[in-house]
Design a protein that fits this description.
The complex is a heterodimer of chains A (about 450) and B (about 290).
Chain A lengths: L1 H27 L1 H7 L3 E5 L3 H17 L5 E5 L6 H10 L6 E6 H9 L12 H8 L2 H7 L9 E5 L3 E5 H6 L7 H11 L29 H9 L15 H15 L22 E4 L2 H9 L6 E4 L13 E2 L3 E5 L6 H11 L2 H11 L2 E2 L8 H9 L4 H6 L3 E2 L7 H17 L5 H17 L2
Parallel strand pairs in A: 1-2, 1-3, 8-11
Antiparallel strand pairs in A: 3-9, 4-9, 4-10, 5-6, 5-7
Chain B lengths: L1 H32 L2 E2 L7 E2 L3 H7 L2 H32 L6 H13 L2 H11 L6 H8 L14 H26 L3 H9 L4 H12 L1 H16 L3 H6 L11 H10 L4 H30 L1
Antiparallel strand pairs in B: 1-2
Helix pairs in contact in B: 1-13, 2-13, 3-7, 3-10, 3-12, 4-7, 7-10, 10-13, 12-13
The chains are: A alpha/beta (about 450), B mainly alpha (about 290).
Chain lengths: ~450, ~290
């Protein structure tokens, strides 16, 4: 009797174990089955408008290319898209095409040998020079001479301002002096407790590398006409422009024209009138149109520059680009699809759907695009600005470089524990040590 | 017969598999990583003791450890005192006792991210409620999260508020195990409330105090969410905890080998601290 019961238990356990292994096998083979057929896999970002763009694009492509089908999916949810891509690279489950990689990340993946160089694909070089100016082509060229990315979209960072507030302080501040003057006029203690409740601007004060793009780096590009931070494995940012930017922000914090507090943790300070300006991109338009109070009117202008600055004002373009992973079995087909994806027609569709700018040099000269900007006055300044943008230097340790600079920025600009000159020299030394040690 | 021998192993296999996959393998792999540099996607490169030498020269890591100790110095005593006081109060016959017991436990089950964001608003220099209250009674504002000398202590207070409910429950359990006849005998001797607490309650709940001490020490050493959300480690790295630094090395800079080395070094420090605490508390018990 006991032996019979044991037999039954054993059979049950075998069945459970068998089912578990079958389940694990099926789960682990989920991605492999995608690669077995000839479909290319394309990941877009998971922003709603981009998903819609990708959906339409792939639907049209597949209708016309029965033997060259593309399978589209938004990048899986995660803390950041970069983490997802890393996990996919490690698990060898990368898509063939990924559109939305931050330009600063491309070199890291390229150095690790997981990207296909576009310049090895037929007709790429002619195409890239027809789409981008030579400065941008230089910017995206890797240190090994190859090009691993196609510039796809940009979101130039500009100064958004509250129209009413700007009228009150005497107009849009174009230079540092004008910005200080306007800040002084706008600063206010609303409740009479002796403390400021209203500042002219705001930037995130946390020492997190990516925040640097929206204060120091942005104004450094503007002051220096788009100078690099590093060149030929050497720090080149310890210069008059960086010093001017440090001095500018230092002055703002010293006079409490900018708050040292993290205002963005609560209600949007721009919408509530606590601040009159901030440095941001075109994504703010959709957000404001949805949530802003009726009486808030806003517009965009170039970021402030040193008083003696001449010529156009450069800015950070926050570029997101397209890459092909080396797991792609048909790079030629991927390239064929991408040419269609960033054709004039599809760039136009992307612009209309997402309010994000395609990274192409004819944005302000091609009537098809200028017509869109004429109809969308909020977006028009970004198109003008798109002629004067920079991304980031092509270096696999660019985040560490940003991290080094932001630590020194905080020590010098926000807390004044060292001089600006010392801070910049220390940052320069640390970056050079970083290059030496790799 | 053979099947009978295998069955027990099969029955414990879920735990064994879990242990191998989620404990033994990560620890073994991390140990292996300490002798390599690795950025996740490129091949590993053997560097011998290079990572260990780098740890010994990394001033920022030692600053992060110092910050963590600063946090612990405030957080642990505060946690024990507040939890003990609340547990003692909630052990009395007071009105709405179940409600208060539940209320004090509530922050424990709320996400650390949510709590951090709420406290960030309370701590705001210009707009926070705390500073507004202080201004309204004529006191100067405090840079709770913006003053490098204050920020870590602010986080310690917040972490105490968040976690104290758990330790209240542990102390309540401890208090309820104290035999009531001890108190009755003390009453007959005319002992005051404080005397009873000092000479009966405290010695009797010493094992609970030790457990709370160990748990809050380990919990305190793993400080991460609060500075990650509230300050990003600033101002001037004053709230950069050791775990936050290890995280940044691993997931911002992709120095996996180095961060594994930092992790082992830090785990060794925690082990030493817990060992010393154990010796100290046990000696006190004798």
């Amino acid at each position: 009797m006991i032996s019979h019961r044991m037999n039954r238990t054993g059979k049950m356990l075998k069945l459970v174990a068998g089912l578990c292994f079958l389940g694990l096998y099926l789960v682990s083979c989920g991605n492999r089955s995608d690669g077995d057929n000839d479909e290319l896999v394309y990941w877009s970002s998971n922003e709603a408008n981009e998903i819609e763009f990708a959906r339409r694009l792939v639907m049209e492509w597949n209708a016309e290319h029965h033997d060259e089908k593309i399978k589209f999916q938004p990048i899986p949810e995660g803390q950041s898209s970069e983490e997802i891509i890393l996990a996919a690279v490690v698990g060898k489950t990368t898509p063939d095409i990924y559109a939305n990689m931050w330009q600063g990340d491309v070199e890291f993946f390229a150095k690790s040998g997981v990207l296909i160089p576009f310049d090895t694909l037929d007709g790429f070089m002619d195409f890239i020079y027809s789409r981008c100016d030579s400065a941008l082509v230089d910017e995206i060229t890797s240190n090994d001479g190859h090009i691993y990315q196609i510039p796809w979209k940009i979101n130039p960072i500009m100064m958004i301002y509250n129209r009413k507030a700007i009228e009150e302080v005497g107009g849009i501040p174009r230079t540092y002096s004008e910005y200080f003057e306007a800040s002084k006029k706008y600063q206010k203690d609303n409740n009479g407790d002796g403390y400021v409740d209203q500042w002219f601007g705001y930037s995130d004060v946390r020492p997190i590398w990516h925040e640097l793009r929206f204060h120091f780096y942005l104004l450094y590009l503007a002051a220096s006409d788009g100078a690099p931070l590093v060149k030929a494995n050497k720090a080149v940012f310890n210069n008059e422009y960086a010093l001017e930017v440090f001095e500018f922000f230092s002055e703002l914090y010293a006079h409490n024209y900018f708050s040292r507090e993290r205002l963005s943790a609560g209600q949007d300070p721009f919408m509530t009138g606590k601040i009159a300006t901030k440095f941001t991109g075109p994504w703010e338009i959709a957000h404001l149109n949805k949530f802003k109070p009726d009486d808030l009117e806003y517009a965009y202008a170039p970021v402030p520059v040193p008083d003696d600055h001449q010529g156009p004002v450069y800015t950070y373009g926050d570029p997101k680009n397209i890459v092909i992973f080396n797991t792609c079995k048909r790079p030629a087909l991927a390239w064929k699809f991408l040419k269609s994806m960033i054709s004039e027609e599809n760039d136009l569709l992307f612009l209309k759907l997402s309010n994000q700018l395609p990274a192409r040099k004819d944005l302000t000269s091609n009537p098809k695009f200028t017509e869109v900007f004429a109809q969308n006055s909020k977006l028009a300044p970004f198109a003008e600005q798109a002629n004067y943008i920079r991304g980031v230097d092509n270096d696999e340790v660019i985040k560490e470089i940003f991290d080094i600079i932001i630590q020194e920025y905080q020590a010098s600009v926000l807390y004044g524990v060292k001089s600006h000159e010392d801070a910049l020299s220390d940052a320069e030394r640390a970056v050079n040590v970083l290059f030496l040690n790799r | 017969m053979r099947r009978n021998k295998l069955l027990p192993y099969f029955l414990v296999s879920p735990y064994l598999i879990h242990f191998l996959v989620f404990v033994a393998f990560p620890v073994g792999f991390s140990l292996y990583l300490t002798f390599n540099t690795w950025n996740i996607i490129s091949p590993m490169e053997f560097v011998g003791f290079g990572n260990f030498i780098r740890v010994s020269q990394d001033g920022l890591f030692f600053k992060a450890i110092f910050n963590t100790i600063k946090f612990l110095v405030v957080h642990i005593p505060l946690q024990i005192i507040v939890a003990l006081f609340l547990a003692e109060t909630l052990n009395q016959k007071i009105k709405f006792r179940p409600f208060f017991r539940g209320a004090f436990f509530l922050p424990v089950v709320v996400s650390g991210v949510v709590v951090s964001m709420l406290w960030q608003q309370l701590y705001g220099f210009d707009t926070g409620i705390l500073n507004r209250l202080m201004s309204s009674v004529g006191l100067p504002k405090v840079g709770w999260l913006t003053n490098p000398d204050v920020a870590m202590y602010s986080i310690a207070i917040m972490a105490t508020w968040k976690n104290v409910g758990l330790y209240v429950i542990l102390f309540l359990v401890g208090l309820q195990t104290v035999p009531p006849q001890y108190y009755e005998a003390a009453d007959l001797e005319g002992a005051s409330h404080w005397q009873k607490f000092r000479h009966i309650t405290l010695p009797m709940i010493n094992p609970t105090i030790f457990m709370v001490l160990i748990l809050s020490t380990i919990g305190g050493f793993s400080l991460f969410i609060e500075p990650y959300i509230m300050t990003g480690g600033g101002p001037l790295n004053s709230t950069l905890s050791a775990v936050l630094y290890i995280y940044k090395q691993a997931f911002t800079n992709y120095h996996m080998g180095y961060s594994a080395t930092l992790g082992f070094f830090f785990a060794f420090i925690i082990l030493m601290v817990v060992f010393i605490q154990k010796r100290f508390v046990e000696r006190g018990d004798q």
